[in-house]
Specification:
The protein is mainly beta. The chain is 4% helix and 38% strand. It contains one helix and 19 strands. Strands 13, 14, 15, 16 and 17 form a five-stranded antiparallel β-sheet that branches. The protein has a four-stranded antiparallel β-sheet with strand order 1-2-3-4, with no helix packed on it. Strand 18 and strand 19 form a beta hairpin. The longest helix has 11 residues. It is globular, with a radius of gyration of 19 Å.
Length: 270
């Protein structure tokens, strides 16, 4: 598993040469048996231009394999790690020895999935109990501006509702409707909505037993539903037109069916 942040950005040449291309990889520690309670995975940095790992750069160590999630503009990437969410900032002119800034957000339950907002410093994460957490103004004390807005930034730490300890965020909201662990989260392309899905019988089925895809309005937390999903969902695709965002099912359920329902429910009355 890995991400290549600069493929999502317009790389600028340095002294007439294209920038060095780096990837960030989640790799298995082959020296550790899977029945041992030791580090199983590491997040490493790889110099793709020179086909080598960046020496002595280990971003994180985890016991379980964790998928790396990257922001739509390639500015940030991160992983859930039990009750923590690690987020790194990608610097504009990367090199092997470049310091990589990281923040860690904390929760009381194990996190299962998360997603970056497309234009603001907002992350959404789902946990094993079905709750969804929304952190706003992510990394305002640690990261550079990077072209993203901070939203409602607050400097007084006493005014950071539900933010745990010294976590670098200005607020944290909790939404709860699902009855089991959240496995799929995706923002709409304009960032106005958040879509959430939970598993059922080892498949990604919308809303689990309820068979429901939940559409949350980010500003208000109001929600509407796409009910009676009859097939396991493989993944969620967001297109440039937010009204066309749709989950893709295995069988007996087409994107046209999803689009028909989403057109009906996408409008919220405030």
């Amino acid at each position: 598993m890995g991400v290549i942040p600069h493929l999502l950005t317009q790389g600028t040449e340095i002294d007439g040469k294209p920038p060095t291309l780096f990837a960030y990889l989640s790799v298995e520690n082959a020296k550790v048996r899977h029945d041992q309670r030791k580090v199983q995975r590491r997040i490493l940095k790889c110099n793709l231009t020179k086909s080598r790992l960046a020496a002595r750069v280990v971003l994180a160590e985890t016991q379980l394999p964790e998928s790396i999630t990257i922001s739509s503009l390639g500015k940030f990437f991160g992983i859930p790690n039990k009750r923590k969410l690690h987020v790194w900032e990608v610097i504009a002119h990367d090199h092997e020895a470049a310091p990589i800034k990281r923040i860690t957000l904390h929760h009381t339950k194990n996190l299962t999935v998360f997603a970056f907002h497309p234009t603001e410093r907002i992350v959404a994460a789902g946990d094993v109990t079905g709750r969804i957490l929304i952190w706003r103004s992510l990394g305002s004390r640690t990261f550079s501006l990077g072209g993203l807005t901070n939203g409602r930034a607050m400097n007084n730490e006493d005014e950071r509702p539900r933010v745990r300890g010294d976590d670098d965020a200005d607020s944290c909201a909790t939404w709860h409707w699902h009855s089991a662990e959240v496995k799929v989260l995706s923002f709409s392309s304009d960032g106005a909505f958040l879509y959430s899905v939970i598993p059922f019988n080892n498949y990604f089925l919308g809303g689990g037993k309820e068979g429901v895809l939940v559409v949350w309005q980010l500003d208000t937390g109001k929600k509407k539903f796409l009910p009676r999903i009859g097939s396991p969902l493989l993944y969620f695709t967001t297109l440039l037109d937010p009204s066309l965002s749709s989950p893709v099912a295995v069988a007996n359920f087409t994107e046209a069916d999803v689009f028909k329902y989403l057109v009906q429910i996408i409008g919220f009355t405030c």
